[in-house]
Amino acid permease (Sutcliffiella horikoshii), 449 residues
Amino acid sequence: MSKASCSSKQTTGDLAWWQLSLIGIGCTIGIGFFLGSSLGIKLAGASIIFSFLVGAAGTYIVYSRLAKMTIQDPQEGSFCYYAGKAFGKWAGFSCGWNYWCSNILIMGSQLTALGLLSQFWFPDVPLWIFSAGYAVLSFFVVMLGTKGFDKMEDLFAIIKVAAIVMFIAIALGIYFGWIKGDGGSGGNMPNTIKEWMPLGLKGVWSSLIYAFYAYGGIEVIGLMAMQLKKKEDTLKAGTIMMFFLMILYVGSLGLAVSLAAFEKFNEKESPFVTALTNYDLSFFPHVFNGAIIIAGFSTMTAALFGVTTLLVTLAKDGDAPKLFQKKLQFRELPLPSLLLGVVGLAASVVCAFALPGKVFEYITTAAGLLLLYNWIFILLSSFKLEKKGKVLSVLGLLLLLLAISGTIVEKTVRNGFFISILFIALIGIVTLIMQRKWKKGGGKKLKYS
């Protein structure tokens, strides 16, 4: 994820629409796709490609509604601002904190994934040791406040896309018979319903959360749309971004599930590495694994920057203790805000120590769900604020509810649902307490104009 804020200040920018599309692709492609898609394949088998098509449709609806609100009323606070405008201060407050919590879980998911990927080379090293190492390294990168970090993000985005393109090129080489191995000279797409859906419709239903999670990042593009030269280009930028992502995701996953049996995929290895196991490509797993680790670490560190910045803004808006807006003279570093983000990372390390076998699955599911709860806020805000597109908003809500409910019916991902509900309950309790405080003290009013 990228840097985020929930301020209601209007700004102008100089980004072209195609630049926003590229930033969106860089923000979106991450561990959720490279490793999280394995969890989806375990549930849906080859039908994961249909889950990703449904995910693309639902994600595009959410983005299109957010883009319409941005065009009509450009605000730096984006979805947080629109939630407050539609339903009151409680909505903006809870939306901001839900987004902060979702990013903390996303960081935890990425941190755990980095540990799992590193075990590819060092299988005997405990997961929590890798997680702790990456957490400390990420903290020091943020502490240094490297000015060139944003530019490095562009390079990391190229690495992520190049890794997928490399897999697609190799997979096509296998199909055309240029590359041979124990798996034969070509792929084999499933021929029966059982091969397409090994666990039935319930498996496909439960896999939707991982498809939606892989598209997570569109709300960040809503925040960054304020930097466009022309705000009316917001929808075009998102449309191009979503089309490119859908082709990249569905195409690469379609090739992956045709090159390896359903039983071979697992959450400890990228599906793209699994797909090429039977072929004489000894270099690929190491190169691909390294590329994912580099990209995943950059995304996690950017997320740590993001939650730190977001908490500072929440504090300035009166939605978090004033302590969190304080900055050190050294590089203007918001140390209290950063340390709270680090506490979230530490919790992930503890989980990796206590639940090494299931932590990635649980945290990834919960992170995806919190992300979808924010998307529900976007659609509900659009339904109330926009005169047109109400049918589209309802359709989007149904798709999101379909993905959320899918985590309840499958016991292997149900714990992730309960974790997300715990977060929502805590945010809800704090919101109720704050509402009483706002009423008692006259409240700090948000200005919506």
In short: The CA atoms of residues 260 and 275 lie 5 Å apart. The radius of gyration is 21 Å. Residues 283-316 form the longest helix (34 residues). The chain has 18 helices and no strands.
